[in-house]
Amino acid sequence: MSSFSYTLQEYAKDRSISKEISAIREIPLTIYLNEREVITLLCTAKFPLYLAIGFLKSDAYITKLEQIVSTHVEEDDYSIKVLVETNNDPWKERTQHLSITSGCGKGTNFERNLETISKKEIKTELKLKPQVILKHVAELFNRSSLYRQTRGCHNSSLCSTDEMLFFREDIGRHNAIDTIVGECFYNDIGTQDKIIVSTGRITSEILLKAVRIGVPALVSTAVATSLSIELARKIGLTLVGNVNIEKESFWIYNDSNKLLDF
């Protein structure tokens, strides 16, 4: 269940009335890696395994699919545990530094991840028409039934030039994108010719997650931060933000690979 019903009082225009509302689910999900606790995420957890795998991939605890030996999900009404076993030592030469992200989430070893990703160079033969970006953003809004119901989630999707391949939603944009990262990584889905379309600010940690799985283009309905713009321009990721369906407009922060085909 992704939402719960509550009765509350709504105040408007000098009077109070009883109102039924839907509140989005929030549940703690704790990730264990080789029997060691990594982190607890607060999430909606529609796809807990993919979210956990996506977080571990985004933060470079795992880098190759064959490193994963087993996975197990334990869930009750109040919490979720995801247990992942690998055949490598994910803690070797790793110093645990938690960083509070701009989305109120937590990341680990941010500086190390930033240094690694900034050395990458995005190369792709993908070509995007402006109409494709506008179409995918429109579909993102159309599929956002949980947001319309609760006003409490972010939405992300993985798209080809032709269609939206899958759509994910969570209380945080980090979780929504990590779920996509985990699903692509765990199911060995190629991403070199795909784009991520999302709601929410494009911050550096969001960009890092996309780059981890080789996505060459990141699109959001919101704006980008200075560090994400600088990183996109350094590594060649096409970065588009501030998409407005009604105005049929968007901002192109970077397109050094000339993906956009006007």
The CATH class assignment of the largest domain is: Alpha Beta
Q: Given the helix and strand composition, which structural class is it?
A: alpha+beta
In DSSP terms (H or I, runs of 4 or more residues), the helix count works out at 7
How many independent structural domains?
Answer: 2
Major beta sheet, strand line-up: 10-9-11-12-13-14
Query: Could you estimate the helical fraction of the residues in percent?
Result: 25-40%
Please tell me how large the radius of gyration is. Answer: 19 Å
Quote the CATH topology of the largest domain. Cytidine Deaminase, domain 2
The CATH architecture assignment of the largest domain turns out to be 3-Layer(aba) Sandwich
Report the order of strands and helices. EEEEHEEEEHHHEEHEHEHEE
Q: Any descriptors?
A:
alpha+beta; Ubiquitin-like (UB roll); 4-stranded mixed sheet; 7 helices; globular
